[in-house]
UniProtKB/TrEMBL annotation, chain C:
This is CCR4-NOT transcription complex subunit 1. Belongs to the CNOT1 family. It is found in: Cytoplasm; Nucleus. The chain holds residues 1779 to 2300 of 2331 of the full protein. Residues 157-518 form the CCR4-Not complex component Not1 C-terminal domain.
Length: 47, 148, 522
């Protein structure tokens, strides 16, 4: 009977695109904001 | 009505190689820049702990409801990520400004009195780099310094 | 082979020096300061003198970076356990430095406006890394480790997609370069890299570049090819449905990627459904339904259970779906295609029909089927398309009356009547693969299946048509719209006398299932 595709961790009813927060083909959940590399302004790179 | 399709030698080799690769499937963090001070350490927590982020946790509105200390923590610990960017946006909505020369956040007071050509009266987040280096040892806190 | 004497040592020393410089705070933002110093050293060592030397330098550095990774892994981790984070971090610190060097050399090779040298160097480097990987994959066999290659490819892709003006001029060429190397390293060529490969092609930045940011859908054919590479590789293991854990992981990963496509880029699945269904095994019913359920985002699907739904009244029902694949080219041999065209034109000679069946027989039956499934798929779509054009040329709509008594329907009826159970299953599947969103193909093939049911001369044909539709309905969602409206018509329209067939009552649960569908219709 296949798989209940709603259990694969993707919010299929989301109004926005899913790919920007797609974490991995093996992950059961989306990216969190701290997972996403972002081109922040240079001065934010305080470290 | 299609009968089983026997695997040929090539398929058997493929499945053998795939089975071996199955032992070291890439982790999501293998595709991210190294974060030396916040390494991604996938850790299986107790099942009753929330395993996925709360809904809408990647919106500025969510970040705006976080405490100022939390936003500073995110800003300095999660450098170079979308979380840092969202924390900065939320801080600005809480009327904080980022002093690019001293890399400090400050909050302007109602009637700011100019102190020097670089500083004005306000609340500054003093970011103690020395402590930053020792944060593992001592309890690391953000210090607010009210600069006269 | 025949590296100039001392080149390896020179490359080793330079790479060590670069890694050290890369990690210094003085390296500057994006290592630009370190790079301008380092390039002088490369000049002094004569590495940049000729293309050949640069190529050798990159190969040697790749080999050394990979060897270092294996060495760290062997010291700290076991072959068959995930690596501790600390070991990975050590490996990545070296690999990321090497990637940064590659990215800087690509960005600054030739003068700023000269994109050709940059793209050529990138293609060369990617080819070198792939070459080292394929050789490593062969030599180490089950001891092969994907880690260093996965890291090099993903970090280099991210570096070369940073928002920089130099790079923005070559974004499309960079994308093509990575597509080519990923296609070269497809899982059937490097099964030990299969998981890393799927991770790479489904990375959010790669999907974004391929399918969303690159204008005019220029990346879509490339991405469709990568999905075909994935399905082709998995097909033999999915076909037998005895999924090992590793195959199940890859299968679930593929489903997630398809769900992303269905949700974000449904038109990609619409335009390439034929090519995808040509390689997805017939028993992967849910995966195939997922592909066939896609419909254009600007389309509103009427509820298939709407009472008295008249599909020919739908505006889109007469629009031909886009199909990006040259399926007619798959009708081989060309003599067969010529006879086919002649039969379609003249509805003669009758002998063609028996010739057609023998042509469809697979020359090598050990593939688990005695039929050439790809040829069947192409034949059905070609004949169906010709039929639709013929019907529209007579200002008719492809409904039950318009499709009858034609050369096209002769062919379909002959296949339905003359093929054995296996052959007819493949034929009916080829037909059912066009039951999708409202378009002229859905309309025609839905009518054609119902017509074959109504005109069948044995109940076995009717039972098999029902089975082919039913097996697509009883799996978990999603279900294609065209499949639902066809099945509803079959069980609702009294002219098909559906409920009088013995196979409808062959088992209580089957009967209950039909009744539940019938109830949803009413």
């Amino acid at each position: 009977p296949g798989i209940d595709l709603t259990t694969l961790g993707l919010n299929l009813n989301a109004p926005d695109n899913l790919y920007p927060t797609f974490l991995s083909p093996w992950a059961d959940g989306p990216c969190r904001p701290q997972d996403i590399d972002y081109h922040v302004p240079t001065e934010y790179l305080t470290n | 009505p299609l009968g089983p399709q026997p695997l040929n030698e090539e398929h058997k080799r493929e499945i053998r190689m795939q089975e071996s690769a199955f032992n070291h499937v890439p982790q999501p963090s293998d595709s991210e820049r190294l974060r030396l001070y916040m390494p991604r350490n996938p850790y299986q927590t107790a099942q009753h702990f929330p395993q996925v982020p709360p809904p809408h946790s990647d919106t500025v509105e969510f970040f705006q409801r976080l405490s100022t200390e939390t936003l500073f923590y995110i800003f300095y610990y999660m450098e170079g990520t979308k979380a840092q960017y969202m924390a900065a946006k939320a801080l600005k909505k809480q009327s904080w400004r980022f002093h690019t020369k001293y890399m400090m956040w400050f909050q302007r007071h109602e009637e700011p009195k100019t102190i020097t050509d670089e500083y004005e009266q306000g609340t500054y987040i003093f970011f103690d780099y020395e402590k930053w280096g020792q944060r593992k040892k001592e309890g690391f806190t953000f210090e607010y310094r009210y600069l006269e | 082979i025949d590296d100039p004497p001392g080149l390896r040592e020179k490359a080793d020393a330079l790479l060590r020096e670069w890694v050290h410089m890369y990690h210094q705070p003085a390296a500057g933002r994006d290592s630009t300061k370190a790079f301008s110093n380092f390039v002088q050293h490369m000049h002094q060592q004569g590495i940049l003198k000729t293309d050949d030397l640069i190529t050798r330098f990159f190969r040697l550095c790749t080999e050394m970076s990979v060897d270092m990774t294996y060495k760290l892994m062997s010291e700290h981790g076991s072959q068959h356990q995930p690596l501790p984070i600390s070991v990975k971090t050590k490996c990545f610190q070296r690999l990321d430095a090497f990637v940064r060097l590659i990215a800087l050399l690509v960005k600054h090779s030739g003068d700023e406006a000269n994109m050709v040298t940059k793209v050529n160097l990138l293609n060369k480097v990617l080819g070198i890394v792939a070459g080292v990987m394929m050789q490593d994959h062969e030599l180490r066999d089950v001891s092969f480790q994907q880690l260093p290659y996965h890291r090099i490819f993903i970090m280099l892709f991210m570096e070369l997609n940073s928002p920089e003006r130099i790079l923005e001029n070559i974004n499309y060429q960079v994308l093509c370069a990575f597509f080519n190397v990923f296609h070269v390293m497809r899982p059937s060529r490097a099964p030990g890299f299969a998981f890393a490969w799927l991770e790479l092609i489904s990375h959010r930045v790669f999907i974004g570049r391929m399918l969303a940011i690159t204008p005019n859908q220029q990346g879509w054919p490339m991405y469709a090819q990568l999905l075909i590479d994935l399905f082709r590789y998995m097909a033999p293991f999915l076909r037998n449905a005895d999924l090992k854990k590793s195959t199940l992981l890859l299968y679930r990963g593929a489903l997630r990627v398809l769900l992303i496509m269905l949700h974000d880029f449904p038109e990609l699945l619409c335009d390439y459904h034929y090519a995808f269904c040509d390689v997805v095994p017939p028993n992967c019913i849910q995966m195939r339904n997922l592909i066939l359920s896609a419909f254009p985002r600007n389309m509103r699907l009427p509820d298939p259970f709407t009472p008295n739904l008249k599909i020919e009244m739908l505006q889109e029902i007469n629009h031909a779906p886009k199909c990006q694949i040259n399926y007619a080219g798959a009708i081989q041999p060309s003599s067969f295609k010529k006879d086919l065209d002649s039969y379609l034109l003249n509805r003669a000679p009758v002998s063609f029909l028996s010739e057609m069946r023998s042509t469809l027989q697979q020359p090598c039956p050990e593939l688990g089927t005695r039929y050439n499934i790809s040829l069947m798929n192409a034949l059905v779509l070609y004949v169906g398309s010709q039929a639709i054009n013929h019907i529209y040329s007579r200002n008719l709509s492809p409904n039950m009356s318009a499709i009858a008594h034609s050369a096209h329907m002769d062919i379909f009826q002959n296949l339905a009547v003359a093929l054995d159970t296996e052959g007819r299953y493949i034929f009916l599947n080829a037909m059912a693969n066009h039951l999708r969103y409202p378009n002229s193909h859905t309309h025609y093939f839905s009518s054609a299946l119902l017509y074959l049911f109504a005109e069948a001369n044995t109940e076995a044909i009717q039972e098999q048509i029902t089975r082919v539709l039913l097996e697509r309905l009883i799996v978990n969602r999603p279900h294609p719209w065209g499949l639902l409206i066809t099945f509803i018509e079959l069980i609702k329209n009294p002219s098909f006398k559906f409920w009088q067939h013995s196979f409808v009552h062959c088992a209580p649960e089957i009967e209950k299932l039909f009744e539940s569908v019938a109830k949803s219709c009413s």
